[in-house]
Amino acid sequence: MNEEPEVQEETKKKNVMQAIQQLGQTNVPQLESNIICLPIIGQIEGHLVMPPQNKTTKYEHVIPQIVAAEQNPKIEGVVLILNTVGGDVEAGLAISEMIATMSKPTVSIVLGGGHSIGAPIAVSADVSFIA
Prior knowledge:
- There is one protein chain.
- The chain has helices at residues 3-23, 59-71, 89-100, 118-123; strands at 35-41, 43-45, 56-58, 77-84, 106-114, 127-130.
- It is α/β, with parallel strands linked by helices and 131 residues long.
- It has 2 domains: 1-26, no CATH class; 31-130, 2-enoyl-CoA Hydratase, Chain A, domain 1.
- Helix 3 links the parallel strand 4 and strand 5.
- Helix 2 (59-71) packs parallel to helix 3.
- The mean pLDDT is 86.
């Protein structure tokens, strides 16, 4: 009977690792909020896969989150946290266009870099703060 909790703990750890590898995220404690925080950190990875030592944000992870925020009636706004050196131009423009056309208020906060394609993403929000 003592092995069961250990097996469950190992299963949880494997599931977290799979979520990190496949989705770039893990399940963090969820707070009920009407604002979604969307981080865009590192190089924006689009059609080309970056080397594993590069910190990246995959656009195929960001776009579904934007769509989900737009369609969720409980979400009243989006905050983008940017620290990027740029990356794939087409992927960045896709993210930028989706943010610019959202019906909900959007705010971008650039902490660190907002270089290259990060600049159009930053200014696609309704309000932009750059530190």
